[in-house]
Fold:
Amino acid sequence: MAWLETQRQNLILWAPVGLALGIGLYFSLPFEPPTWVAGLAGLASVVLLWLAWRSSSWFRLLILAVFFLNLGYLASVYRSVSVSAPILTFRYYGPVEGRIINIDRSASNALRVTLDQVVLDRVRKSPKKVRVSLFGFLPDELTLGARVAIVANLSPPGGPVEPGAFDFRRHAWFDQLGAVGYSNNPLILMRPYAEQGRGLWLATIRRNLAEHVAQSVGGQRGAFAAAIVAGDRSRIDQDALQTLRDSNLAHLLAISGLHMGLLTGFVFLIVRHALALVPRIALRMPVKKIGAVAALLAGLGYLFLSGGNVATQRAFIMAAVVLFAVILDRPAFSLRAVALAALLVLLMRPESLTEAGFQMSFSATTALVAVFDLLRTARWWKWLRSFMPRRLFSAFTLLMTSAVAGAATAPVAAIHFNQVSNFGLLANLLSVPVMGLIIMPAAVVALFLSPFGLGYYAFLIMGLGIGWVLEVAAFTSGFENAITTIPNGHWVVLPIIGISGCLLILLRGRSRFVGVATFFVAMVIWVRGERPEVLVNNNGALIGVLSEQGRILNKETAYRFSASIWLENDGDRASQSEAFFRPGISINSRVSTADLSNGWRLILNQNKEVSSCDGATILIAPKIEEKPNGDCSFIGKQDIAALNGFSITFREGTPVITSAMPDTELRPWTNGGAPYQ
Structure:
């Protein structure tokens, strides 16, 4: 009890942690709980609140912990039910009709459209949304709201390409995306403009704004400007995007807390100082609160103009919490404000807990607030602030900010993206001040002046600032060993890192060193993790064998998506073609053979007949149902269909086969939405 008494001040900060644990519990379940379980949980929440109200203080804490855990579970169930929409359950080739609601580009730089109001031939329940990459003839102009028709190949959203990998099906479920595919056929415009005003007027304004900004700035600078103003990244060249990723500057493209903070902060300062210049207003009105209201309205406008994706919603909620704190004369930057923002985001979008954007933004924000809260009372910091010249101290503070944010997000980024930018701190120190002092202010001024035809010089200044950022990205990513690649770790590593951060920041006194020990445990698990020796894709045609030189592939160009994910998760920057030409797999007609490091032999035979297989051999035969003569380990047609992609590891010399698809076939995103249809 004495120890809990020392933690009393920070106990409320554990509320979003409990909520997150409840959400994590829901997503980790191997089955979809019956609806009556959610009803029982809701009733339990009411009872828990009543008990908490009537209980003693420490028993109340235990009850509230269970309550927030329960609330996270309930929020996840409600969200999953509320987005329920049909999912295509088979491969479809035929006519597709729908309305364009989004236009972007795929990873291969192909133009891609997302359609709603979908009609598929002879399909009883068409998906609510489908996404099609276009490789055929296209009209001169595509507009949002246009009703189009095309003959396309569609399939259900794909699952993980290896055990423990990203499950696109769950992401697509919460986006209500029921099918994805491609088309090599012409796209036919049926009604080009008829439905622009039906729910798409804001999206049309956004696209027109992106076009105006991109043309006003020009080139790749204009593409960058369109991304940060309107959230349209479809114009950015893939090479430029890769350069930004390698320099750890790709976060500048995503409209997140940085952009929202810079915009609202700039508006707040301009309005506050402008009103303060008028003595009559400054003496009679709360100019600080008026500035906060103006910044809040500006942030709300930015939320709508930028598309209102999850990252932008999260950024606006965080900014709104800070601004409301100013309006209510409360501390704007505190861990309680961050906790409140996290609670609101997780209640609105529980699925964001699993996304890199949520994890990185809140880890950076929490770490910054906690560190500068400690520095505020530190004697050496007060001394430094008193004796160091103001400009030099500002530069030092910027360095501290970038270092703290970089350290807080580095483990999360390494897990999600399998790389660390060795010069990312330098790139951010050279770019983020330009973003805050030049690019975002120029963007605000340009948007304000553009309706009057006076935005030219503001766009010019904005373009110069963006040019500097792109030059910094090219400079820092061009260094030798600019990137350190990191293999994937066990799935438990990320949750343990998150818990360690909470323990380190939220506990008081020496207890916080438990967080350091927990982080060390996560690092040990990560380092000791091993990548699968053999990976096989969902139809058994692509194999990847791990060797001393890296993973060897049996296909030079086919199945590029699976191959690229395997290599990325290995921490291998080689291309698929480079991995194909590594020695280790012999290919003879339709048979690929590899000798594994432990004495086993792997054979992929894509013929319709196999005579026999003997000894320490793993035979993968996608076109054969019955095991041939011999005592080898056989993986046939039915096995491959059931596994839907798998890995092969060895335990005490015996092959262990693990399916890429988690054993969660009763979840809505893995079962065509069946539980909610």
Notes: The chain has a mean pLDDT of 85.
